[in-house]
C-alpha cells in the first residue's frame, strides 16, 4: 500500500482523498485493464464504476484499489444496477464490500455517514436519484436507458428514492453541521454548470440533475458528483465547491480519457482534495 503524509497541527495541507467517477469499466470489460496512479490515502469512486452484475471483474478492480488505499468509498451509480432490479443491486453491493479480500477497506456510501477518525471531516454519500417532474415522464422514459436496463424500474420508483435520499441528506447535514462535510452523490445537485451547456435545456436533463443549491447546507465544503460525463469545478456564492471528475465512455482500444470538459477542466485520474479543501490536479 502506498504511503502518504497526513496533516498534523502546524503542518501544511496534504492530499486527503482522490476522486474519480463514471469509469464505465463495463464497456469492453475493462475491470482488469484500467489503471490510474494513487495520489492520496483515500479514494472516492463516485458511481458508474461498472455493473455489479459483472461481479468477478468488479470485485477484482476493487481488490486492486483496496490494496493501494487506506480506505475506498463507493457511491452507487445508475449503471451499477444494470441487469438487476434495484433491491438486488443494493444487496449485491453490500455483499461486495463485505468480501474478505477487501479487508474491510471499502465503505459503501449508500445513505452512509463516515467520520474521519483523523480529522473533523465527515463524508455523506448516496446515489441521490434526481427528481423528475410529471411533464417529463414520457420523454425521460424514452430517452434514458435506466428504464430499459434496470429491471422493474419506473419514474415513480426513481422519484420515491430521490425524496428519501434528499430527506436523508438534509437530516444528516443538519446533524453534522459543526463538522466539515464532503457530500458524494452520483446525480448532480444543480442543473446549471454541471453538464455540457447544450444539454441544460433538454427536457430529460431532470434525469441527471436536480436543483438543490438554493437550500442551506451548513457545514458542506465540497459536493462531488458524477453522471453527466462533464468534468468541472464550480464554487458557489455559499462557498460550496461542486466538483466532478468524470471519465465517461472510453473503449479499451482508446485508453486516453475523452477529455470532455467544462471551463477548461478535463478528466484527471490523479485529482485530489487536500486536507485544507483545495483541489490538486495532475493535468
Automatic annotation (TrEMBL):
Pfam families assigned to the protein according to its UniProt record, in alphabetical order: Metallophos
GO MF annotation list: hydrolase activity
PANTHER family assigned: SER/THR PROTEIN PHOSPHATASE SUPERFAMILY (AFU_ORTHOLOGUE AFUA_1G14840) (PTHR37844), SER_THR PROTEIN PHOSPHATASE SUPERFAMILY (AFU_ORTHOLOGUE AFUA_1G14840) (PTHR37844:SF2)
Source superkingdom: Eukaryota
Domain Calcineurin-like phosphoesterase as annotated: residue spans: 20-230
The name this protein goes by in its record: Ser/Thr protein phosphatase
Species whose genome carries this gene: Fusarium solani (Filamentous fungus)
Database matches in InterPro entries: Calcineurin-like_PHP, Metallo-depent_PP-like
Amino acid at each position: 500500500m502506498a504511503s502518504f503524509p497526513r496533516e498534523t497541527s502546524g503542518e501544511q495541507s496534504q492530499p486527503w482523498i482522490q476522486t474519480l467517477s463514471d469509469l464505465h469499466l463495463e464497456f469492453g470489460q475493462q475491470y482488469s485493464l484500467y489503471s490510474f496512479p494513487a495520489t492520496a490515502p483515500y479514494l472516492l469512486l463516485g458511481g458508474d464504476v461498472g455493473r455489479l452484475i459483472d461481479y468477478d471483474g468488479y470485485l477484482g478492480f476493487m481488490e486492486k484499489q483496496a490494496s493501494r488505499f487506506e480506505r475506498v468509498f463507493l457511491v452507487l451509480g445508475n449503471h451499477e444496477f444494470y441487469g438487476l432490479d434495484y433491491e438486488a443491486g443494493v444487496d449485491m453491493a453490500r455483499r461486495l464490500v463485505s468480501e474478505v479480500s477487501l479487508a474491510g477497506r471499502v465503505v459503501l456510501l449508500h445513505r452512509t455517514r463516515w467520520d474521519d477518525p483523523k480529522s473533523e471531516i465527515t463524508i455523506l454519500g448516496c446515489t441521490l436519484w434526481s427528481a423528475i417532474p410529471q411533464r417529463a415522464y414520457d420523454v425521460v422514459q424514452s430517452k434514458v436507458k435506466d428504464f430499459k436496463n434496470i429491471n422493474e424500474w419506473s419514474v415513480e420508483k426513481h422519484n420515491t428514492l430521490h425524496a428519501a435520499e434528499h430527506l436523508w441528506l438534509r437530516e444528516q447535514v443538519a446533524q453534522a453541521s459543526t463538522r466539515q462535510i464532503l457530500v458524494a452523490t452520483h446525480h448532480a445537485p444543480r442543473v446549471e454548470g454541471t453538464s455540457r451547456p447544450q444539454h441544460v435545456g433538454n427536457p430529460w436533463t431532470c434525469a441527471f440533475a436536480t436543483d438543490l443549491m438554493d437550500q442551506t447546507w451548513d457545514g458542506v465544503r465540497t459536493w462531488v458528483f458524477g453522471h453527466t460525463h462533464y468534468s468541472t469545478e464550480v464554487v458557489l456564492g455559499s462557498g460550496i465547491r461542486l466538483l466532478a471528475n468524470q471519465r465517461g465512455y472510453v473503449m479499451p482500444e482508446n485508453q486516453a480519457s475523452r477529455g470532455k470538459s467544462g471551463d477548461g477542466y478535463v478528466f484527471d485520474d490523479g485529482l485530489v482534495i487536500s486536507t485544507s479543501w483545495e483541489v490538486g490536479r495532475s493535468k
